[in-house]
Each structure stands twice: as C-alpha cells, then as structure tokens.
Amino acid sequence: MRNALSLTRFLPYRCNTLARKISVSLSRIYTERFGISVAEWRVLVTLAEYGELQAKQVGELTSMDKVQVSRAVAGLLDRELLLRRPCERDSRAALLCLSAAGVRLYQRIEPEVLAWEQSLLAPLAPAERETLFALIDKLELQLAGMADRATAGQGPV
Amino acid sequence: MRNALSLTRFLPYRCNTLARKISVSLSRIYTERFGISVAEWRVLVTLAEYGELQAKQVGELTSMDKVQVSRAVAGLLDRELLLRRPCERDSRAALLCLSAAGVRLYQRIEPEVLAWEQSLLAPLAPAERETLFALIDKLELQLAGMADRATAGQGPV
DNA sequence: GGTAACTGGTTGCTTTTGAAACCAACTGTC
DNA sequence: GACAGTTGGTTTCAAAAGCAACCAGTTACC
Known about the structure:
Chain A is mainly α. Chain A has helices at residues 11-34, 38-50, 55-62, 66-78, 100-121, 126-151; strands at 53-54, 82-86, 94-98.
C-alpha cells in the first residue's frame, strides 16, 4: 500500500522514543540508586533552583499537574527531604523548600546527572546544542498556538 | 541554593514535555475521533508501510515491546481492522496485515495526520527540519552507545 | 455579612503501563 | 529422538498516570 507516512520520519514518533530512551537511561541514576521518582526529581530540582515555593508554582515551573506534584511532595515529605510551612497570606497553601537532608541528597545526585548529560551531549558541538534547544522552543511555541486555534471559536467559555 | 541545573535547559525535561505535548495534540485526531490508541496507530502505520509482518517485526520497527504490540494487535483484530494468518515456517508466529476496513480507516486518518504534522513543522525551514532529525539521530546513536558501555564489563553473560 | 463562584491541594477510582511469569513451539546437541 | 535452551506471543500482577470528586479556604458581589 502506498503511503507517505513512515515512522522514521514522523516527528511525534521520533520525539516520543527519544524522550523515552533518555528517561530510561537517566532515571537509572536517581531511581535505582536513590529511590527518587521522576516527579520527585523534578520537584527537587525546582526547589533547589528557586528556594521556597508553593506546590502550585512547582507545577507551573515543571509542567506537572497538581496531582503529580501533590504526590511527589508527599513522598519527599515522608522521607523528610522537604520542609513545609504554612503560607500566611493564604492558609490553603503551604510553602515548600528542601530540608538539610534534601540539600545533601540533591548535592549527591546533581553532579552525576550533569555528568550523564555531558556524556549524552558529547557528540553535539556547542552550536548544535543551541540549535537543538532553539528548535524545541519553536516547536513548543507552535504547539501552544495550535492549541489556542483549536479551542477558539468553540462558543462562549 | 546554587545549582548548575535548570529544568529549562535540561534536555531530558525539555524532550519529555515536548513529546507529551505533541502526543496530546496529535492523538486528538486518531484517539478522540477514531478510537485508536497510540500503540494501535503505530501498528497501523507500520503495516500500511510494510504490508505483511509478524508481531515481532512490528515491535522492532516501532520500538514497541512485545506486550504493547500484542495488546494493540488484539484491539485491532477485535475491530476487524487487521487480518491474521498462521505463519507456515513457524507455527508460534502469525502474519499480520491490514484488512480492507483497516486500509479504509488508515486512508481516512493519514491525510489528517499529515496535515497536522505540516502545521506543526510550519515554523521550521526545510533545512531546520533536516537538522532536527539529524540531531535526534545523533542523540539516539549516542544513547545506544552509552547503554552498551553501561552493560559492558559487568562480568560474564 | 451572607452567599455564590473560584482556587490550592488531597483523595479515590479507573485506565494505562511495564516486568516478569508463563505457554507452546522451535533449534541445536548429544 | 530426547533434552536443554531459546524464542514468539499472551497473561497476570503491581506500579504509575489521569480524571473527577472533594475539602477547606478565599474572593467577589450584592
């Protein structure tokens, strides 16, 4: 049967398998050896970068939905890798940050993850790395635009 | 806390979210409107391209593992979009191909998917598209090498 | 100040995924 | 031709993702 579509040149497929392979390879570092899930890892990185945040902000920064964030935070609190204190401006929310143990754990994992990333990016010249991130930016932007157009004109919200 | 790692410049994260957004956007076409899952879609595309294949070959061509293939094929057979006949050389295996209904369905979906892909790739010049696929190729190659090295030297197999 | 709509966050439930056990059939070796 | 090891494919079971309901607290409006 004649068809124009071949998976090897189909971006959704290529992007999906690449992401999966990357994730499997990377998660060996923090999942198998430190018992940290992908969601928990993202929360750790974000709090390490920003200091103190509400769960909602973590979700926005990581593109995780609130259920994922809630469960990841619960797991990290169980292991006392996070601290939670009430937010005085809004008593529904809480402020999260890494505990001392969380910082120590993060500092053990981070260099290994960075080394792994260097090894993955090794075959790419610096300019190619820039290009790669620029292309990803463009595609995400375009997707956002496509979503907007798809939901527009569907009657009043 | 000072750290070198920021999610916005971390390839695993960027690749993961991009793949997820692409998948959500695309699957609106075949999931919501035709009731085809991602795995089933890949089987359809592969059989449309290659004609008649064993489940194992479908798995190799699509990077799906055999459980995924098995379930996708079962779903498609239920809806009579596939034909299965015994393989005379190996009676464990079966040969799969699209049924007439499967071809018709595929021919309805394919143009919509191609149009969607064009719309996604619209902001990329032809040369940029080539670059993107080349970069993905390089990264997958590197990952394969990293996996080899990781499993090498772990004692006799 | 009371009530309706909304929001941050959690919980419960259903659907999806993935790993490993499993079955039947095939291959090689003796 | 019997036995050990392998392979194509399915099933089973447990972890994970996604959805909707929910609770408590907040905002907006009359």
